[in-house]
Amino acid sequence: MDRQPTLETERLVLRPLTEADREAVFAVASDPMVWEQHPIHDRWRREVFDAFFDEGLASGGALAVVRKDGDKVIGSTRYDKYDPDEGGVVEIGWTFLERACWGKGINPEMKRAMLAYAFEHVALVEFRVGDTNYRSRNALEAIGAVRTDRYELGRYDGKRVVHLVYEITRDSFAEGPLCA
To answer: Within 10 A of 84 (CB to CB), how many other CB atoms are there?
Structure first.
């Protein structure tokens, strides 16, 4: 599975993230409200963002989210952990969009394209989301993701971080809200 495809929707182009995108993506990420519910709530700070951006580039799966009207970068997302065994699984995450796009159907449009592409290659897509990130949890549930009983513990800035694991199967996607 190519984790950096170029995907097109009615309003968006998702394309491989490059170093040249750093400033445009930071312009979106520098809004503290984007990160207010996220466990790593200070990605709006330049040094924290730069480490995050570098990690995305190194992952081999980061995508820039670009609006077709105006060719403007409005956020970023990522295909991450990929395992081709047993039907295959890939993780989608690290998604953030500028606030002007919130509530406009941009996230479901983007996720529909990402999931359709992923399910050409895998049987399962996983998402990890901070337990207090209710905005992202609600967005996942709205696209048909189901919370599993799995979670991951980590630490950031001396505090415990809990990530809940959500998933969508190929079959549930085919019958879910994004295909209706």
So the answer is: 11
How do 72-83 and 7-8 pair as beta strands? unpaired
Average pLDDT over residues 89-117: 96
List the CATH number of the domain containing 123: 3.40.630.30
DSSP-based helix, strand, coil % in the chain, nearest 5: 35, 35, 30
| Other beta carbons less than 10 A from residue 177's beta carbon | 12
Domain count, the chain: 1
Nearest residue to 94 (alpha-carbon basis) of 160, 163, 153: 163
Question: pLDDT value at position 180?
Answer: 58
- Total-model pTM: 0.94
| Cβ-Cβ contacts under 8 Å for 97 (sequence gap 6 or more) | 28, 34, 65, 74, 75, 106, 107
Residue 167 three-state SS = strand
Task: Domain of residue 69: give its range.
Answer: 7-175
Cα gap 180→166, rounded to integer Å: 20
